[in-house]
Amino acid sequence: MKLPKRIRVKLADTKRKREAQAKHREWLEANGLDDKTLRRSAKDFKGYDIPNYTPDPNQPKCGDKIPVGTGRKEEMRYSGERKLLGIGMMHKSNLVPIWDKEGAEEISTMRRN
User: Fold this and answer.
1) Please, are residues 96 and 89 in contact by the beta-carbon 8 Å criterion?
2) pTM of the predicted model, to two decimals?
3) Disulfide: which of 1, 11, 28, 62 matches 33 by Cβ 3.0-4.6 Å?
4) d(Cα 109, Cα 113) in Å, to the nearest integer?
5) Domain boundaries, the chain
């Protein structure tokens, strides 16, 4: 599908338009945004200063080393305190472990309520 070209409307060169453009140019010059001032400031710009990266003595020091082997998690092991009776289904595929008879009764009543 071919889209139509944009329609460009050229504004008529009226006295009101010329006055508005002149007023706008004056405002740009007053704020230093006209082409001459911008070109001059771009020519005079030598670049940004290099930041000072020396550490601040008032700040606490932080280590650059990554701790290896110290943050080991303790393995989980079955203690035998609770015995798993089975796996119940609450709703659709929401499987829940059943540890005792009371838990099994609660799950069975939840499905009906």
Assistant:
1) yes
2) 0.32
3) 28
4) 6
5) 15-44, 83-113
